[in-house]
Design goal:
The complex is a heterotrimer.
Chain A (H helix, E strand, L loop, with lengths): L3 H18 L4 H20 L6 E8 L2 E8 L2 H20 L9 H16 L3 H19 L5 H33 L4 H11 L4 H19 L7 H8 L5 H19 L11 E2 L2 E2 H21 L5 H22 L2 H32 L15 H14 L8 H13 L3 H26 L15 H19 L2 H13 L12 E3 L4 E3 H21 L3 E3 L12 H4 L14 H7 L7 H22 L4 H21 L1
Antiparallel strand pairs in A: 1-2, 3-4, 5-6
Helix pairs in contact in A: 1-2, 1-4, 2-3, 2-4, 3-4, 3-10, 3-13, 3-17, 4-5, 5-6, 6-8, 6-9, 8-10, 9-12, 10-12, 10-13, 11-12, 11-16, 12-13, 12-15, 12-16, 13-14, 13-15, 13-17, 13-18, 14-16, 14-17
Chain B lengths: L1 H13 L1 E6 L8 H5 L10 E3 L8 E5 L4 H13 L5 E5 L2 H4 L21 E3 L6 H17 L4 H7 L1 H12 L9 H7 L1
Parallel strand pairs in B: 1-2, 1-3, 3-4, 4-5
Chain C lengths: L1 H34 L9 H10 L3 E3 L2 H18 L16 H20 L4 H32 L4 H7 L8 H4 L1 H15 L10 H4 L9 H26 L6 H21 L5 H8 L2 H14 L1
Helix pairs in contact in C: 1-10, 1-11, 2-10, 3-4, 3-10, 4-5, 5-8, 5-12, 5-13, 8-10, 8-11, 8-13, 10-11
Classes of the chains: A mainly alpha, B alpha/beta, C mainly alpha.
C-alpha cells in the first residue's frame, strides 16, 4: 500500500484548483503550474517499480475498485513526461501565449493517473480528463476561429475514441466481471488461442482510441489542425507528451501476443501485427509527404510528429525485442527533439509574430541561441549521429530487416530522407536566407527561454552520445513485457543485431575533424564579413533594381519538383471521408429534427403510436 | 613568408578561374578558346559562374556606360587577388566606338587593367597568349592591379561617377514629358 | 597510447581520402578532356586549385556560413575513418553502413546551412534541387543496401567484406547483379555527375550552392567533393567488390567505378529535377526491388 501514488494524481488537481482561482494573474498561474510540476517530479522520485495501491470508491452505493500499479513502463513514461513538462512550464513563465496553466495541470493529473492506474475505470476517467482538458487547451491559439474549429474537430475525434474504448471496456467487464487491467489482459491472452477473433475485436476497440490519440493513419486528420492552432506553448506538450499516451496504451495491449496462437502469419509476424506495421509505415510516409508542402511551420512539424509516430507504431507492432526497444527509445527521442523544436518555434513565433514560413527568414543573426537549438533539433530529427534520434532510427531499421520486411524498410528510409527535406525547408525559411527589415528589432528570447534552450541542446547531445542511460530502462521495460532485452554494452553503445554503434567514438571523430577544419579555416587566407545586401545578383545593382530582402528570399514553393511528382496523390483525401461522415450526420440530424417540430398534435400522435406499438408488443410477447 | 607568397603566386598562375563579361562582340572568340580546338583548360583556366569564385575578369570588348556600372559592381564583388584582362581594342581606346557618346573609351580609367589583348578581334591564340603572359606577370609580382585599385580608390571612383552621372534620366517624371510635348 | 595511434591513423585516412579524391577529380578532368578531344589540364590540377583557393581572400556572410561550410568537409572526414579502406580498418566493430550514411547527412546539412545562410536564392534553389535528387537516389540505394543486409546477414561493412571473401565469384557484384546496377545508377546521382547534376547547373542558377563561395570556402567545397567521391566509391567497393587486400587495389577498384561515372557524365545531358527523381524511382528502384525480391524469397 503506497498512498503516494494517489498523491501523484491529487497534487496536480490541487495545484490546478489554485491556478484556476488565480487564473487572471497570468504569471501566478504559470508559476503555480511550474511549481506543481516540480513537486510532482519530487513525488515521482519517491515512486518505485512494484508499488501498488487500491481503494474502493463509493459511487451511488456501488463500490468501484480503483487500483494503482507501477510498472517499468509507467515509471519511464512518468519520468520523461514530467521532466519535459517541468522544462516546458519553466519556459512558459516568460511566455505570452494564452496557454492555461490549470488545464495543463489537469492533463498532468490525468497523465499520472493513466501511467499508474491498473483499473479500467480509472484509465477511462483519466483518459477523458486528459482529452477534455487538452481540447479546451487547444482553444486560445493565436488564430481564434481556426483554433475553435480545430478544437471542435479534435473533440469529435476524441469522442469517437472514447465511445470505442467505453464499449471495449464494458465488453471486457461483462466477460470477466473485473475492471483490473492486468487480470483482463491475462484473461484475453488465455482465450486468444480459442477465440482469436473475439480478442481481436475487443483489442481493436481499444486500439482505435489509442490510434486516434496518437494520430495514426487513418485517424491522423485532427493532428495538423490541433497542433497548428493550439497555443504555441501548449503544442510542445501536445506533440511531445500527449501523442505518447496512445503508444503507452498500445504497449499495454500488445503483449497479448497473437503470434503463436493460431493466427496466420506473414513474414513470421501475425497478420494483425503485419497490418499494424504497414499502418505505421503509411503514417510515416504520409506525414513526410504532406509535410513538404506546408507553409505554416507548426503544421509542418505536426506532420513531422505524425511521421515519427508512424515509426514508433511500426517498430512496436513487430513485438520483437529490437522492435519494442527501438519503439520506446524512439518515443523518448521524439519527445526530446520534437519538444525542443516546438519550444524553439514558440520562441520564434512569439518574437516574429508569424507562423508562416514564407514571411520569415534570416532570423539566425537575431536569435543565435534559438538557431542552434533548432539546428541540433533538426539534426536529431533527421537522425544524424551523434545527436539523439539516430540510435532509435537505426534500431528500427534493424528490427524491420530482421523480419525481412524489406519494402516497409525502404519506405521508412524514404520517410527518413524526406524528413531531412522538410526539416531543412523549415530551417531555411525561418533562420537562413535574407532577413526582412520587418524583423530588424527582433531580439533573442529572454533569459529563461535561453536557459531552457541550452538545457534542451545539452540533453539532445548528451542522450545522443550516452544512449545507455535510456537503453537500460528501456531494456527493463522490454524484459517486463516478456521479451529478451538487448544487451547494453556500455553507456555509449547502441547495440543492434547486426553491428554496434559507439556513439562517443562518433562524437570524438566529429570533434577532431571539426578541430582540423577550424585550424585549416584560420590558417588560410583572410575572410571579411559582408552584409546580406552584398550578394551575387548577376551584376545587377540591387538598389537600382528595387530589390528587397523579401523578394530575394526563396521560400515559396520550396520543393516544386516534388509537388509535381506527388500531384496524383493529392486527390486522395482521408479528410474527405470524415467530412462526408460529418455531413451525413448533419443531414440525418436535420431529418430527425424535422420530426420534432414544436407542434403538440404531432407529439400526441407519437405518443399514441408508441402506446399502440407497446400494447401490440406486449400482446405478442 | 616570402617563400610562401612565391608558392602561392606559383599556384595562382596555374589555376586562373575566369569570369567573362560578354557584352561585346568579342564573346564569340571565347567558345573556340574553351573547346576542343584551342582548349584553355590545359592552362588551368576554367570559366566560372559568379564573380565570387573568379580570379580573372575578362572584358570582351566595348562597354557602354550602363554596363560599366555592372562591371564595376562585379569587379568589387571579386576577392583579391584578382586580375582584369581587357580584350580587344575597344577596351584600349574605344575601337570603332571611339566617337560614341554612350561607350567608354579607356577601361583603365575606371578599373585597373592588368593586361590588354590588342586586336579587333584578337584570335583565340592571342587569348591563350594573354593567359601565359598573365601567369608570368603574376609570377614576377607585377600584376597588382587590385592593389592599385585600393590605393587609388578615390581617383577611380571620381572617374566612374563622372560617367555614371550621365546614366541618370534627364526627364524625371512622365508628366514632364507630356508637358514638354 | 592506443588513442594516439588511432588518431594518427585516422588523420592518415583523412589525408588519403582528400588526396585520392582530388587526384580522381584531376584525372576525371583529363579523361573528360580526352573524350572531348582536348588536351586537358594536368592530373594534379585540382591540388593546384585547392592551394590557390586557400591562399585567396574571401567573403563570408557570418558565423553560420563559416560553420556550415567547415561542417560540410569535417563531417565527411569524420565519416571516412569508419570506412574500411583495403587493409586499413580502424574501427572494425563500428562500421555500420547506415551509420556512415547518416553521418554523411551531417555534411549535407552543414553545407546546406552554410550556403543558404548567404541569403542568395540561387544557392537555396540549388540545395532544394540537391535534396530533391537525394530523395530520388536514396530510395533505390536503400533497397540495394537492405538487400545486401539480408543477403549477408550483417550490417557492418567489415562483415559484408568478410562475407564476400574467396574470389571474384563471391563478390556481391556477381551475386546481386541487379542490385549492383541499381546502386551504380544511384552512385551517379550521389556523385552529382550528369545526368543528375541539376543542383550545380552553372548556366541556370549560377552554380547553385557555390554561388556565394569564394576563396577558402570554395576550397572547403572542393575538399568535401573530394572526400565525398572517396567515401561513396569506397562504400560501393566494399559493398559489391569485396573490399580489397590493400589500399592500392582499393583505390584502383574505386577508380573503376569512378571511371564509369565519368564516361556517363561526359556523354549525357542533364535531367530536369522531377525527371531525374522519377527516373530514379522507375528503373533503378525497379532493379533494386527485383533484387530484393530475389534475396527475400
Amino acid at each position: 500500500m503506497n498512498s503516494n501514488l494517489i498523491w501523484l494524481v491529487f497534487t496536480p488537481l490541487i495545484g490546478s484548483a489554485i491556478a484556476a482561482i488565480l487564473y487572471n494573474y497570468k504569471f501566478l498561474d504559470r508559476l503555480i503550474t511550474f511549481s506543481t510540476f516540480a513537486i510532482t517530479l519530487f513525488l515521482v522520485f519517491g515512486t518505485h517499480v512494484g508499488q501498488t495501491y487500491s481503494m474502493n470508491l463509493n459511487f451511488m452505493g456501488r463500490m468501484i475498485p480503483l487500483s494503482w500499479n507501477v510498472t517499468h513502463l509507467s515509471i519511464f513514461m512518468l519520468y520523461i513526461s514530467i521532466v519535459f513538462g517541468t522544462i516546458l512550464t519553466f519556459y512558459s513563465l516568460m511566455d505570452r501565449s494564452r496557454m492555461k496553466g490549470f488545464l495543463l495541470l489537469l492533463i498532468l493529473a490525468a497523465n499520472n493517473w493513466i501511467f499508474t492506474t491498473n483499473d479500467m475505470v480509472g484509465f477511462f476517467f483519466a483518459w477523458e480528463l486528459m482529452g477534455w482538458a487538452s481540447i479546451v487547451s487547444v482553444l486560445g491559439g493565436r488564430k481564434e476561429r481556426k483554433s475553435r474549429h480545430a478544437a471542435l474537430y479534435y473533440a469529435l475525434m476524441s469522442i469517437g475514441g472514447s465511445y470505442s474504448m467505453f464499449f471495449g471496456l464494458f465488453t471486457l467487464w461483462r466477460l470477466t466481471g473485473s475492471f483490473s487491467i492486468s487480470s483482463n489482459l491475462a484473461y484475453l491472452s488465455s482465450i486468444v488461442g480459442v477465440h482469436p477473433w473475439w480478442v481481436l475485436g475487443i483489442v481493436s476497440l481499444f486500439f482505435v482510441t489509442f490510434m486516434i490519440k496518437a494520430g495514426i493513419f487513418p485517424f491522423h486528420t485532427w493532428v495538423p489542425m490541433a497542433y497548428a492552432y493550439a497555443p504555441d506553448t501548449f503544442t510542445p506538450f501536445l506533440s511531445a507528451v500527449m501523442s505518447k499516451y496512445g503508444i503507452y496504451g498500445m504497449l499495454l495491449f500488445l503483449p497479448i501476443s497473437l503470434m503463436e496462437k493460431g493466427m496466420p502469419t506473414v513474414f513470421g509476424l501475425p497478420w494483425v501485427n503485419y497490418i499494424f506495421v504497414w499502418i505505421g509505415v503509411i503514417t510515416a510516409v504520409l506525414g513526410t509527404v504532406l509535410a513538404f508542402f506546408q507553409d505554416d511551420v507548426k503544421k509542418l512539424f505536426a506532420y513531422s510528429s505524425l511521421s515519427n509516430l508512424g515509426y514508433i507504431v511500426a517498430a512496436i507492432s513487430l513485438f520483437t525485442s529490437v522492435g519494442v526497444t527501438a519503439g520506446i527509445y524512439h518515443a523518448f527521442n521524439h519527445l526530446l527533439f520534437k519538444g525542443a523544436l516546438f519550444i524553439t518555434l514558440a520562441a520564434v513565433i512569439s518574437r516574429s509574430g508569424t507562423s508562416k514560413l514564407s514571411e520569415m527568414g534570416g532570423l539566425w543573426k537575431k536569435m543565435p541561441v534559438t538557431f542552434f537549438t533548432f539546428f541540433i533539433g533538426i539534426a536529431s530529427a533527421a537522425g544524424i549521429p551523434p545527436f539523439n534520434g539516430f540510435g532509435s532510427k537505426w534500431l528500427i531499421y534493424q528490427s524491420m530487416i530482421k523480419q525481412h520486411l524489406l519494402f516497409a524498410t525502404i519506405l521508412l528510409f524514404l520517410a527518413s530522407t524526406g524528413a531531412f527535406l522538410y526539416l531543412f525547408k523549415a530551417f531555411h525559411s525561418i533562420f537562413l536566407g535574407q532577413l526582412s527589415h520587418n524583423y530588424d528589432n527582433v531580439k533573442e528570447v529572454p533569459v529563461i527561454g535561453q536557459i531552457v534552450e541550452y538545457l534542451l541542446m545539452f540533453a539532445m547531445i548528451f542522450f545522443g552520445i550516452q544512449p545507455g542511460y535510456i537503453l537500460r530502462p528501456v531494456g527493463l521495460i522490454v524484459k517486463s513485457v516478456g521479451l529478451n532485452p538487448l544487451a547494453v554494452m556500455g553507456n555509449g553503445y547502441v547495440t543492434g543485431m547486426f553491428s554496434n554503434v559507439d556513439m562517443p567514438l562518433i562524437g570524438w571523430s566529429l570533434a577532431i575533424s571539426f578541430v582540423f577544419g577550424f585550424i585549416l579555416f584560420f590558417i588560410s587566407a583572410k575572410h571579411k564579413y559582408v552584409s546580406q545586401e552584398d550578394n551575387y545578383t548577376a551584376g545587377q545593382i540591387p538598389q537600382d533594381w528595387g530589390l528587397t530582402p523579401e523578394t530575394y528570399q526563396f521560400s515559396w514553393k520550396f520543393y516544386e519538383p516534388m509537388e509535381k511528382l506527388f500531384a496524383p496523390f493529392y486527390r486522395i483525401k482521408i479528410d474527405g471521408f470524415f467530412r462526408g461522415l460529418g455531413d451525413w450526420t448533419r443531414i440525418t440530424g436535420s431529418a430527425v429534427k424535422q420530426v420534432f417540430v414544436g407542434n403538440a398534435q404531432i407529439y400526441t400522435l407519437f405518443a399514441v403510436v408508441g402506446l399502440i406499438i407497446l400494447v401490440i408488443a406486449g400482446w405478442v410477447a | 613568408m616570402s617563400e610562401w607568397k612565391e608558392l602561392a603566386d606559383y599556384f595562382r598562375g596555374r589555376s586562373m578561374w575566369m569570369l567573362h563579361y560578354c557584352t561585346g562582340c568579342g564573346a564569340i572568340e571565347l567558345p573556340p578558346t574553351m573547346t576542343s580546338r584551342w582548349d584553355m583548360e590545359r592552362f588551368g583556366v576554367v570559366p566560372m559562374a559568379t564573380p565570387r569564385q573568379a580570379d580573372i575578369l575578362l572584358i570582351t570588348g566595348y562597354l557602354s556606360i550602363k554596363s560599366l556600372k555592372r562591371v564595376v559592381y562585379t569587379y568589387e564583388q571579386m576577392s583579391a587577388p584578382k586580375w582584369v584582362l581587357g580584350f580587344g581594342s575597344c577596351t584600349i581606346n574605344g575601337g570603332i566606338y571611339w566617337d560614341s557618346y554612350s561607350v567608354i573609351k579607356r577601361l583603365d580609367k575606371y578599373i585597373p587593367v592588368d593586361l590588354y589583348i590588342a586586336g579587333c578581334m584578337p584570335r583565340p591564340e592571342a587569348i591563350l597568349d594573354s593567359f601565359v603572359k598573365l601567369r608570368e606577370l603574376i609570377k614576377k609580382g607585377e600584376a597588382k592591379g587590385y592593389e592599385k585599385y585600393v590605393k587609388n580608390f578615390e581617383w577611380y571612383k571620381a572617374n566612374q561617377d563622372k560617367v555614371f552621372r550621365r546614366t541618370t534620366p534627364v526627364l524625371k517624371k512622365p508628366e514632364e514629358v507630356t508637358k514638354s510635348a | 597510447m592506443m588513442f594516439f595511434l588511432k588518431l594518427i591513423q585516422s588523420i592518415g585516412v583523412g589525408a588519403l581520402s582528400i588526396s585520392v579524391g582530388l587526384l580522381f577529380m584531376g584525372i576525371g578532368r583529363k579523361i573528360t578532356a580526352r573524350i572531348h578531344r582536348r588536351y586537358g589540364p594536368p592530373a594534379i590540377q585540382n591540388f593546384i586549385d585547392v592551394f590557390k583557393l586557400f591562399s585567396k581572400n574571401s567573403i563570408s556572410h557570418g558565423f553560420a556560413y563559416d560553420l556550415g561550410i567547415i561542417a560540410g568537409t569535417s563531417a565527411l572526414l569524420a565519416a571516412v575513418v569508419f570506412l574500411p579502406v583495403g587493409q586499413i580498418n580502424l574501427f572494425p566493430a563500428n562500421s555500420s553502413l547506415i551509420m556512415i550514411l547518416y553521418l554523411m547527412t551531417m555534411a549535407y546539412l552543414g553545407m546546406a546551412m552554410g550556403v543558404s545562410s548567404s541569403g542568395n536564392p540561387n544557392a537555396t534553389i540549388g540545395i532544394s534541387r540537391a535534396l530533391t535528387m537525394m530523395m530520388g537516389y536514396k530510395v533505390p540505394f536503400a533497397a540495394v543496401i537492405f538487400s545486401v543486409y539480408i543477403f549477408a546477414r550483417t550490417g557492418s561493412l567489415t562483415n559484408i567484406i568478410a562475407a564476400q571473401s574467396g574470389g571474384l565469384l563471391n563478390w556481391n557484384m556477381i551475386r546481386l547483379p541487379f542490385g549492383f546496377i541499381a546502386a551504380e545508377i544511384a552512385l551517379q546521382g550521389m556523385l552529382g555527375e550528369k545526368p543528375f547534376d541539376m543542383a550545380i547547373a552553372p548556366a541556370e542558377i549560377a552554380s547553385g550552392p557555390m554561388v556565394e563561395m569564394s576563396g577558402k570556402y570554395l576550397g572547403f567545397g572542393m575538399l568535401q567533393h573530394a572526400v565525398g567521391i572517396f567515401l561513396e566509391t569506397g562504400i560501393m567497393v566494399n559493398l559489391f567488390m569485396g573490399g580489397a587486400p590493400n589500399v592500392w587495389i582499393f583505390v584502383i577498384k574505386q577508380f573503376e567505378l569512378f571511371f564509369i561515372a565519368l564516361l556517363v557524365n561526359a556523354i549525357l545531358p542533364r535531367f530536369r529535377v522531377e525527371e531525374g527523381v522519377s527516373f530514379m524511382w522507375k528503373i533503378p528502384l525497379l532493379l533494386g526491388v527485383i533484387q530484393a525480391l530475389i534475396v527475400v524469397l
